[in-house]
Specification:
Layout (H helix, E strand, L loop, with lengths): L19 E2 L4 E9 L3 E8 L4 E8 L6 E3 L2 E3 L3 H22 L9 E7 L2 E7 L6 H8 L4 H22 L1 E2 L8 E3 L5 E3 L6 E2 L21 H4 L8 H17 L6 H5 L11 H10 L11 H9 L7 H11 L6 H20 L10 H28 L1
Helix pairs in contact: 3-5, 3-8, 5-7, 7-8, 8-9, 10-11
């Protein structure tokens, strides 16, 4: 009996239109994009006739396809693929639990064809890369609006989950029908424990014009929001100029970023985000966004440091600070009105107690604000 032989070619790397997945739940329509770690398809949820996007784990360097089934020809390749496959499942499971307006919602996760898939809401606006390809650079207003959306998503990842995305770029940012930007593709994301140490040891990939130098050098063992800030800065540069920034490797070799077409306040913000050394970048996202939004004027380094400090992880929740302080003054006012302080001694000691009572609500607000901020 003649054995069936699969012929592998580049066209067979992708699922064909009409393929049914998850026992008839989804029907593949076309390919939306492909990277080194996966393929994204436009598909239809058969019962509801709703369009969805499906991400398939497919490492193009190691994987081939026989029909719809993925095969790995070499033993060494199988070891690498299995390592990343476990990471893909772990990150997809975590993503399904996320609730943020600027992170695409994961609806379903399933295994089939010897690989893993996750299903997301489909955004008809396409990616920012698609937008630039069609229209060229964005207006300053629209570009900063998109950057603010993604900064909000990254802030959520950094502070709530101790996770870094490590692949922020225009191709991984989608636009919804209202023009809001949503972050997708967490294939390179890494989680970190409360001490800032990575919880997985898989090597990390990169996107050439958007990755910081530490990703080239695989220096991502410790929690590094600055790495995502670099990529967000490179994305902002691309949206505002329509030109790709030189890669970090090129810049280490002496190539300069051309900021001449940017307004001064935009240049100041993006230049700091794109600093080659992590220590010279913005350390959190709020001061970066604040600086992008400034009118064209000189902002001193001391002001930048103060703004950065206000947003730093070890500071306070300012909403809690204000609420607790106001509540404290209301309580003190009630006590004064009802004569609770009539027993206080007169003279200098009374003045000292009055000063303490004046500042006590502020100090309590600061304490509660710091405690609650640390717990979020």
């Amino acid at each position: 009996m003649e054995q069936e032989v699969c012929k592998f070619n580049i066209d067979m790397q992708q699922l064909q239109s009409g393929v049914i997945l998850q026992g008839g739940v989804y029907k593949v329509e076309k390919v939306l994009g492909q990277g080194g770690f996966g393929i994204t398809y436009l598909a239809k949820e058969v019962q509801s006739d709703r369009q969805v996007a499906i991400k398939e784990f497919f490492m193009s360097e190691y994987c081939e396809r026989c029909g719809s089934t993925i095969v790995i020809p070499t033993v060494s390749g199988s070891t690498v693929v299995e390592q990343y496959r476990k990471k893909f499942i772990k990150e997809a499971t975590k993503l399904k639990s996320l609730e943020h307006p600027n992170i695409v919602k994961v609806l379903d996760i399933f295994e089939e064809n010897c690989t893993v898939y996750y299903v997301m809401n489909y955004q008809k606006g396409g990616s920012l890369q698609d937008y630039i390809n069609r229209n060229g650079k964005m207006s300053e207003y629209n570009a900063i609006s998109c950057i603010k959306n993604i900064a909000s998503a990254l802030n959520y990842l950094h502070r709530r989950l101790h996770m870094c995305h490590y692949d922020v770029k225009p191709g991984n940012i989608m636009l919804d029908a209202q023009g809001n930007a949503l972050l997708i593709d967490f294939g390179l994301a890494k989680g970190y424990d409360n001490n800032g140490i990575q919880t997985s040891t898989t090597p990390i990939g990169l996107s050439v014009n958007f990755a910081p130098i530490e990703q080239y050098r695989q220096n991502v063992e410790e929690f590094s929001p600055e790495s995502d800030i670099y990529s967000l800065g490179a994305t902002a540069y691309y949206l505002l100029t329509g030109n790709l920034p030189p890669s970090a490797i090129e810049r280490v070799s002496g190539r300069q970023v051309d900021y001449s077409c940017l307004k001064n306040h935009l240049r100041s913000a993006i230049e700091k985000a794109l600093a080659l050394s992590k220590g010279d970048r913005w350390h959190t996202l709020y001061p970066f966004i604040h600086s992008l939004e400034q009118e064209e004027k000189t902002i001193s380094p001391d002001v930048h440091k103060f703004i950065d400090r206000l947003d730093h992880d070890d500071y306070v929740n300012w909403n809690v600070y204000i609420i607790v302080s106001i509540l404290g003054y209301v309580i003190e006012g009630y006590m004064i009105f009802n004569g609770y302080f009539e027993f206080l001694p007169k003279g200098n000691l009374m003045m000292l107690i009055v000063v303490i009572l004046f500042f006590l609500p502020l100090l309590l607000g600061l304490l509660f604000g710091k405690l609650l901020y640390s717990s979020t």
